[in-house]
Specification:
Layout: H1 4-12, H2 22-48, H3 54-67, H4 78-92, H5 95-103, H6 107-162, H7 167-201
Helix pairs in contact: 1-6, 2-3, 2-6, 3-5, 4-6
């Protein structure tokens, strides 16, 4: 059922919508898969360090050095883990590491890790885009309805002023008008200040932003 309160609430709380959708499910699946593959890779290298075959042990020792900066990547934030995995894959595919990766039988694992990481990133980007479109459409609809509510309120107030039977009735109508004007003025002031703040934070044309 349509109510003005619902729409005012929707306008102010657009960013709190539920994230339970197919893209989120896909993200969870791919995140679990890339975490699993990272664990497999770390285990294979760690196990190789104990190998009796010299070639396997040497390969493990080489990759152990490569993997050290990436240990704990599974616990990093989404985007951070994505970047770490991309860096790890680049390192493992460097010419000097290719033979060691093959010796430990990790070629397929590296490929699968890249696929899971890319799938996760694609699902995350798709979810972000779809949320932006959905929230934009809902916000436009909510604003349209609140405009209608405002116009109806103005009509009712005008009718009440015309039908006021006593000075007290008219005084009440005037108080309602004053309160509405006060609220609108406050919102306009807040909006103006917000826009001014954004403008002041934006670098002037030709200005260099220091890092």
């Amino acid at each position: 059922m349509y109510t003005p309160i619902r729409d005012f609430y929707l306008v102010s709380l657009q960013n709190r919508k539920s994230s339970a959708n197919t893209n989120t499910i896909k993200m969870d699946e791919e995140d679990a898969e890339r975490d699993r593959l990272l664990s497999v890779m770390f285990y294979m290298v760690s196990n190789g360090l104990k190998a009796s075959k010299a070639a396997v042990k040497a390969a493990a020792q080489q990759l152990d050095v490569v993997l050290r900066p990436y240990k704990g990547a599974q616990g990093a934030a989404d985007d951070a883990e994505t970047s770490l995995i991309k860096g790890l894959i680049l390192d493992l595919r460097k010419e000097e590491n290719k033979a060691a990766v093959t010796t430990l039988g990790l070629d397929a694992t590296v490929d699968e890790l890249e696929k899971a990481n890319n799938n996760f990133d694609a699902a995350k980007n798709k979810r972000t885009s779809e949320r932006a479109l959905t929230e934009g459409d809902n916000l436009k609809d909510a604003r349209s309805k609140t405009d209608t509510v405002y116009q109806n309120m103005c009509t009712l107030i005008s009718a009440a002023a015309l039908m006021a039977a006593t000075p007290e009735d008219l005084e009440f109508v005037v108080s309602v008008i004053n309160e509405m004007n006060r609220v609108i003025a406050n919102h306009k002031t807040s909006y103006t200040q917000s826009q001014a703040q954004k403008k002041s934070n934006k670098p002037e044309e030709g200005e260099t932003v220091e890092n």
